[in-house]
Description:
Layout: E1 16-23, E2 27-34, E3 39-47, H1 50-64, E4 68-74, H2 81-89, E5 94-97, H3 99-105, H4 114-127, H5 140-172, H6 179-209, H7 211-220, H8 228-237, H9 247-254, E6 258-263, E7 267-273, H10 279-295, H11 297-308, H12 313-333
Parallel strand pairs: 1-4, 4-5
Antiparallel strand pairs: 1-2, 2-3, 6-7
Amino acid sequence: MVHSGFAKLKCKIMENLFCGIDISKDYLDIALCLGSEKEIVFDSKVANSEKGINKLIKELDVQAKGKKLWVCFEHTGNYGLLLAYLLHKAKVTFSIVSSLEIMRSSGLIRGKSDPVDAKRIALYAATFSHKLKPYQLPDKALLKLKSLLTIREQYVRIRTQFKNAIKSLKISAECIDLKQEIQTFQKEIKRYNKLVEAVELKMETIIEQEEQLNQNYKKSIQIIGVGPITATAILVYTNNFTSFDNPRKFNCYCGLAPFEYSSGQSIKRQTKTSRYRNKDMKKLLFNAANTAIIYDQQIRTYFKRKTADGKHKMSVINAIACKIVLRVFAVVKRDEPFVRFSV
């Protein structure tokens, strides 16, 4: 239930009202901040449910009094999905911000609790309102694809654990009888093979049913090294190529872009990629790069030349992953066909 303290705001004139929300599984901690005063004027808690969020939206609409209302909260995965969906449905402007960015903007922090975090988020939104960008919720097809990619990754991880267990058991089986246990694990691997295939079929069906997704998907898999899973992940994390206007920004998001590290004359280190990245996307692009080295004559020649010049192998693979992203964006954004070189 929304706290009755909302009534206290009615006597104040507000140009901008910023709402900071800290999300947990069961509850949403809320703090309201007046943009002109940078002052927390109210805090409360509601249930993280459709009923609780809808009641919150109605109260915020009343308290905003037709003025600009901006809601801000952190990336929390599935726990914040319902909130984002209902805010989008109610046409409430909101931003989803990295928790690291909010934490660093708060200066030296002592102690932590959900109500305190909500206040910090609200103050961040009021202080850095010029940096906030309205969040565009992906359509349902992309949200479903993202969930299916996560489910597939979990199935693959469990299947790999069974495969590794079998390798270990076969060593022990030289001394003791473990035939039945090995057969049980092999059955589980077959079961997870079917589960992975079923998820991949669902993803393929969703893409085929969406014309724009299907067009960009077919263009992406033309690139040597880019398979169905990598192409689907690119669609999801670029929001079907609408969240990034150029490939360099996407390379930065994936952790492929190198950055300089230097200070004055005494500190100058080798350029390196940032640890703040989408690890899943980077892993897929590295796999794509390794595949391209085998099957793409142009990429293979580039890899051999660079490694022969003394470049570190992983550095060259990183550069190839960047090239793959450039190629994908080229065929999608410029509508250019990909020309395959014969091996």
